[in-house]
Amino acid sequence: MLTIAKEVLKDAREKRYAVPGFNCIADVMIRGILDRAEQCRVPVFLMLYAAEVGDKTFWYYPAIVRAVADRYTIPIVLHLDHATELDVIREALDHGFNSVMYDGSSLPFDQNAEITRKVVELAAPYGASVEAELGLVGGLDVLTAQTSTANILTQPDEVVTFVERTGVDSLAVSIGTAHGVYAQLPKLDIPLLKELNDVSQVPLVLHGGSGTPDEQIRAAVENGICKFNVYADSRVGMWSRFKKIAAETQRNDPLPNDYFAELREALGDVVEAKATLAGAVGKG
User: Fold this and answer.
1) What CATH number is associated with residue 233?
2) Residue 81: active-site member
3) How far apart are the C-alpha atoms of 153 and 223, rounded to whole Å?
4) Which of 17, 119, 194, 243 sits 20 to 30 Å CA-CA off 5?
5) pTM of the model
6) What sign does the CA torsion over 206, 208, 214, 216 have?
């Protein structure tokens, strides 16, 4: 069932677990995530990465999610991830997204805060929640797999001012993770996270959850992370299963549902592993 993000994250913050957010596109991924999440009683964010929005994506993606959400008994948030343009955010809201992320992390503080405030005002009539990013989570560009930018860690003394000026519902912070597949393992700054959580009026979000060592994710959740995002691990899991299917299939005309079911299972395994890590199993 579709649920407002700030309600889901409020429960996560009070009970000290994190809600996993899975970037996905197309029905095979949506179903793979939701089927396993329901099995495990896990609340989830279904996230569409703004850079992957094509000419028909805003017709298909929210239409599918909204059509099936009421068939599931777990909280589901329909979230637009890493949007940088107001027009894209407005279109997402018009098509039924009930959560949006504006990413102004590459902008100067004042400009980031100013535009984020406009997004909050834009989302308010829709009853939608808004996530922003303060500091900068770098890493690989998802579409090109090329290195994009270096990390800029979030500063505690900026958090209170930013939240007060913008009115955001949640805040993505930079504590050492990166987007994409890691060239070398990260070392999260947990003491910094503790400081950020102590001063933040809103739940904190961790981007770059794929590939981060399990013990570091657990430490992040224990010290204030209420949502963490996963995409690269989902892609790796599905691709590994896809290659296995291709190598083992004898038919020249295999039935689509046979290999779709395998891909959903592979993605479901990622969902269950990440939800377990976040302490979210049974919370839905």
Assistant:
1) 3.20.20.70
2) yes
3) 16
4) 194
5) 0.92
6) negative
For residue 11, tell me if it sits in a domain.
Answer: yes
- Please give the full DSSP string across 138-174, using - where no structure is assigned: -BB-TTT-SB----BPPPHHHHHHHHHHH--SEEEE-
Query: What CA–CA distance (Å, rounded) separates 29 from 139?
Result: 24
Model pLDDT for residues 103-154, shown as the tens digit of each residue:
998 899 999 999 999 999 999 999 999 999 998 776 555 554 445 555 678 9
Residue 119 · residue 130 · CB < 8 Å: yes
Residue 206, domain extent: 5-277
Contact 221, 14 (CB under 8 A): no
Query: For residue 264, how many C-alpha atoms fall within 13 Å in the half-sphere facing its CB?
Result: 17
Mean pLDDT of the region 146-166: 83
> Are residues 33 and 22 in contact, defined by beta-carbon separation less than 8 angstroms?
yes
**Of these residues, 35, 55, 70, 81, which one is catalytic?**
81
Query: In this structure, is residue 283 part of a structural domain?
Result: no
